[in-house]
Amino acid sequence: MGVTETLARLAIETPWEDIPEAAKTSGKLRILDMAGIALAGSHEQSTLIALETARHMGGTGRTSVIGHKDRTSSPLAAYVNATAAHAQEYDDYTKGVTHASVVIVPGALALAEDRTLSGRELLAGFITGFEVESRVARGIRPALLDRGWHPNAILGSIGVAVAGARMGGFSVDQTRMAIGVAASEGSGLRKNVGSMGKAFHVGHGAKCGVFAALLAERGYQMDPDIIEPSESDVGGHEKFGLAVCFAGDDGYDLSKMTAELGTRWELAENTTIVCFHPGSTAPASTIDAVLDVMKEHGVSADDLERVHAEVTPQARAIACYDDVRDSYKARYSLKWSIAVTLIDGKNGLAQYDQSRVDKGDVQPLMKKVDVTVPDDFSHHHGQWGVDGVNWAEMRITFHLKDGRTINHARSYARGWSEEPATWDDIADKFRDCADGVIDSVQCEDAISMIQDLENLDDVSRLMGRLQPT
Fold it and tell me: Per the structure, how many domains does the chain have?
């Protein structure tokens, strides 16, 4: 039995009772977080363009658009909602995998509403889709990323397709077909990071996963073993399955996709990082370090002569922009994150809004911020969590005008595995994201429904609370 069939069987044949309670609890946290940030991102420019395009394309009004009154087809709703959820770079990240929740949650919600499914069916689909995506990711990363592919759509479409297969009661063979379609839809180039392109990758992945499930449900036929290369010496088409195409001949490890099958579940492992600062994940520890120093020493922007941050190669590469003129670049700039935090005394959605960038007071302070990669951090390059790699290791030195020097260091941020986010933490984040989009009654109703998701009779009730009245 090949890898594709093995993973399809895991998704379809695992009874609800055999899914760990920790995975179910974590799954609800992920769904709450993604629903909230989709509300927050529902009026971002990238989302509005996506919605306008969906309106132009038309489609049956079977599925809700979060943060708007629109209804459209399930693939288009998944596309718009996933774009919204990633538009502000406020979603979670699973170590060694990618931004998995942000693709699977909108895709699974769209399919669940389209099919009038229960909350338990949604949760089971999300967990199994997340598991299969995570296993595929661990088998083809870091080569996938190093070759210039942006993982979100490539991996996320598979996660959504598998979630759809589980929720749709597919056979194992139908699930293999759904994976086959999704694998052929995968795309996303890293050069688009720092533009609307990154949110597009996420929306595209969700749409593709839904479309893959819909095609497979109706009998579409693909190669049943799309992940692994065929065992053949010919070297023709049969060699180029997903693993070879995206990771290269020597960049994949199929054994990682099936190791500890059924006993280790990604969502039960505390590997997913919740984001409390918009922007790329790795620099979050640096932002928290700035906030620590401001709180402990009373430092403000006016006190600074200069700031020197030492970070890992990955943190520097991810948040690489030193010249910021728009909100997209701001979210990928360590210098911006440090400077705006020092000026505003906080770091949230408002600190990365275009209006904040346009104000123009942060850019001069950025010139006082220096970011380097020290030699002792150079080994933190590669797969996060493998061989001790921790992208978040950092040190920061504040040189003050009064002659004082303050040093501080962090190796993780709030919301990470070492300081995991609680239900109340994410519920508060949800309320902040929902403010001004839906009313307070809808907000509390949505939180309650997700907290008791396994007993929700119809996901459509939840989706209705995520739209303005």
Answer: 2
